Amino acid sequence: xxxxxxxxPASTPRLFVDxxxxxxxxxxxxxxxxxxxxxxxxxKPGDPVRLFDDRTGEWLAEVADAGKxxxxxxxxxxxxxxEAVPDIWLLFAPIKKGPIDWLVEKATELGVARMxxxxxxxxxxxxxxxxxxxxxxxxxxxxxxxxxxxELAEPTTLDALLRGWDARRTLLFADETGGTPLAQAxxxxxxxxxxxxxxxxxxxxxxRIRATAGAVAIALGPRILRAETAAAAAxxxxxxxxxDWR
Length: 246
Fold this sequence. Notes:
By secondary structure, this protein is of the alpha/beta class. It is built from 7 helices and 13 strands.
């Protein structure tokens, strides 16, 4: 007998919807999402769509009606519960538009739980478009099969961050002057990785970070890394040694 095809197929479109999902729910999508399903994917009634809501997990839905501007869906069954992601934060100094978009995308794919821009003395970008960054995080989560979106926190200053730091969360800060190799320093969650600006931390900032309870200076190899590269590299090493890659 021929094998039963997998359902839903691997090619099934996958979208985030910002509302609680449940069995039998009817919903209507418009705007870019409807255009993607209708004009790009050319879905028709009866075709499957995978949905996740960052609340209840991932669900299978079926196209009920495909109009020119809206797509009506009916949720048919739950595919997965919302995943539990490792409690790792990424704290980073804002950088230029292209690199910061890449950073958020890759951090989402790597499984970070929370991201927060940190304003330091040498930060060259003082405005952060959180709506744009959230859109990049959502798109990355759709592509990489995440069911839990990373939290994207409002920017704060380094001083404010350190004043309120909870020593129970290890603060792994990439210190360009040297530190313990991250593969050796990475411990169990909860933890956070702090990446400085393109010009690095000032000596005063570095001293204050080192004096913060729970802080551990880490090294990311012998080469000078761009801020976005350092963030992705640090997350990958942490996931491989203390996260959910083990």
